[in-house]
Structure formats: C-alpha cells, structure tokens
Amino acid sequence: MRPTPRPGIMDITAYVGGRAQLSGVKTVFKLSSNESPLGPSPAVAAAMDQAKASLHIYPEGSARILREAIAAAHGLDAERIVCSGDGSDMILTMLANAYLQPGDEALFSEHAFLVYRIITLANSAVPVTVPERLTNHGLVVDVDAMLAAVTPKTRIVFIANPNNPTGSYLSRDEMARLHAGLPKDVLLVIDAAYAEYVTAADYDAGIALVSRSENVVMTRTFSKIFGMAALRLGWCYAPPAVVDVLNRIRGPFNVSTLQQLAGVAAIGDRAHIEKSVAHNSKWLAWVTDEIRKTGLRVDDSAANFVLIHFPEGPKNRAAADEFLNRGGVILRAVEAYGLPDALRMSIGTEEENRRAVALIQDFMAS
Ligand SMILES: *Cc1c(COP(=O)(O)O)cnc(C)c1O
C-alpha cells in the first residue's frame, strides 16, 4: 500500500522546458523558450533593489500596487485583476482547479500550449483536442470544429491567442464568434501571453470580450515582452464572480513584494516595451523571409517565434536540430505538440538571429 494520486495525474507527461545547454559547446545561442532578447527594463533591477529593505515583511496580499499599475496601463478595473507570483501558468492552473471536476471535458486545439493538457489531467478531467486548419498562412485554430466538439460535459475552452508553437492567432471577430457559440456556463480562457507582440489590426487580446461577458478570462504574463521569465509573474482580467473564486483559492501572499515592485516598474516603462516590439517586428519579418528563401515552410507568426517545418529525408528535422546544435544554436523541438517535423525558433538578438539563419542556410545548402 502507498498513497495514490488522483486519476489522471499518472497520465501526465511532465513539462520539459527548452534546452539551455549543449555538451561541449561554450557559447550557446538559446532560442528555445521565447524569452526576450532585450531583457527587462532597467527600472526592474532598481525596483528589486528597493524591495531588499523589506524582505522580513509579508507582501500586501492582493498585489494591490501591481493590479493598480496594470489597470492604469490597460484602462481596466483593478478589482477585476488577479495576479500570480508563479506565472500565468498558475492562473491557468487555478482556473482548472476551480472549474473542472472529474470526468468534465476541457477543450483545446491539437497544437495548443501543453500546459492545458497537464492541468486538465491533474483534475481528473478529460482533455479533448480539436484538429487545426492548415491554411496558406500555417496552422490555425478551427472555430467551427471547436464549437462542434462542445458537449454537455465541456467546462473550459483554452485558447492561446496567439498560439504557441504555431504563432497563429484568431481575429477579434473569430474569437467573438467562438464565444457566441459557447454555452454560458462554459469558461473561455484566452491565454494572451504574446499579445503585446501582435501588430495586426484585426487582433484583440480579449479585454472587450471579458468586459462584456460572465464566462471569459484573459491571462497575461511578464515572462515574454517584459523580459522577466525568471521572475514568474502573471495576471488575469476576469468577471467579478471568477475573480472572487480565484481570490478564495490562491495563496494568501502569492505575489512577493519583489515581484510586485518589479512588475510596477516594468509596466511603467512604455519606451522599453515599444523598443521590444519594434525589435521583434523587424527581426520576425527578416527571419521569416530569410528562412523561406531556403525553400523551407515557415508559418506566419504574430508572436516572437517562428515555426519551421522540415521535409522528410536527409534534410529532416532531427538532422537540422543536430546541425544547429553543433553551431551552438538551440531551437525547440515540438514533437510533444504533435509537430514532429518542425522546430520553433524564438526571435533573438541580431547576432543570434543572423547566426541561426546562417546555419539553416548552410544546412539546406550542404
Ligand atoms: C510562455 C507562455 C505562457 C507564460 O507562462 P508564464 O507562466 O507566465 O511564464 C503562457 N501561455 C503560453 C501559450 C506561453 O507560451
């Protein structure tokens, strides 16, 4: 006899992050985790220095100063924001914990972010995956197929918008159509981790939809454009009833003083965010074009990474991965996302982008 976990937990494949090291290679170009090549605003380090004086005092439990800074930046009601000191992943986890019962179904697309499956299984619920549409732009969430897959057991629909690792997004109208087709008691979770990068005019992170609905939550993170992945800070904007639920189940001091001050500083540095968006837009376009010139399929991306597909045969994905690794570049294999032919490349510094593209060109020419 020994303690046994809930049904479903042993079906989980533990999440493995992007590789950071290569044996025998000194200078590594890590383009495997969609981190910001520009790092955080300099104001973040200064704020963290300031927090050192009060490490012995419990943080303010509701992350009030951070919620107010986020609310001011986005024109939101601070009472409808919940923050997390363990990334937006923890917001997603809390939503699954709160709204999924054993046997319930959580719906997401075939190549959706892996965390959705993990948090569904952790609650003994059933992951239901829906095939995506292959368009001229790449793989896209199929709204009609998603709606067709809703059953009386469906409790949550998770959509990353833009999605990782495909890079595609649903327009404001498509998301509204998905929402309109869902029963009122199904929670639509819009994971907008990459929202700041998107420049398309028909994109919306979901704020308006949350504002006018009882069953939509938008999650956001400081891990991507803000360059603070190590700090593990995330938040959500939600209807009052969902906020009430999250505030009951979250840890009482779930955002440290260090994190709160760092988040406020980051949100306040608009210039740094704009610089990061400009860097990404420029290099996303360049990387996409240059890799396409080698004949490889690169899907359109609205985020800070591209999905590169390799053919079968000698120029296959495994061979490309090995070739890049020998040159010190780490991309992300995405077999676990149902994409065994592809590598995901994060947009890095100019040097990193040029290095990765040169290696891919060499690989295809060799
Ligand atoms: C990176 C990422 C997140 C962010 O997770 P954090 O826990 O906030 O670091 C969330 N969703 C998707 C789809 C991501 O790619």
Outline the structure in words.
This protein folds into 2 domains: 126 residues, Alpha-Beta Complex (Aspartate Aminotransferase, domain 1), CATH 3.90.1150; 228 residues, Type I PLP-dependent aspartate aminotransferase-like (Major domain) (Aspartate Aminotransferase, domain 2, 3-Layer(aba) Sandwich), CATH 3.40.640.10. The protein contains 12 helices and 15 strands. Helix 2 runs parallel beside helix 9, helix 3 packs parallel to helix 4 and helix 10 packs parallel to helix 12. The N and C termini lie far apart (58 Å). The protein binds pyridoxal-5'-phosphate. Pyridoxal-5'-phosphate (PLP) binds next to helix 3.
Structure characteristics:
366 residues; alpha/beta; Aspartate Aminotransferase, domain 1; Aspartate Aminotransferase, domain 2; 2 domains; seven-stranded mixed beta sheet; four-stranded antiparallel beta sheet; binds pyridoxal-5'-phosphate
- Our estimate of the beta-strand percent is 15-25%
Question: What is the chain-wise order of helices and strands?
Answer: EHHEHEHEEEHEHEHEEHHHEEHEEEH
Distance between the termini: 58 Å
CATH class of the largest domain: Alpha Beta
Bound small molecules, deduplicated: pyridoxal-5'-phosphate
The number of helical runs is: 12
Overall mean pLDDT: 97
CATH fold-level name of the largest domain: Aspartate Aminotransferase, domain 2
Number of strands: 15
CATH superfamily of the largest domain: Type I PLP-dependent aspartate aminotransferase-like (Major domain)
Described by strand count, sense and barrel closure, the largest sheet is: 7 strands, mixed
Oligomer: single chain
Number of domains: 2
CATH level-two architecture of the largest domain: 3-Layer(aba) Sandwich
Shape: globular
Task: Bin the helical content.
Answer: 25-40%
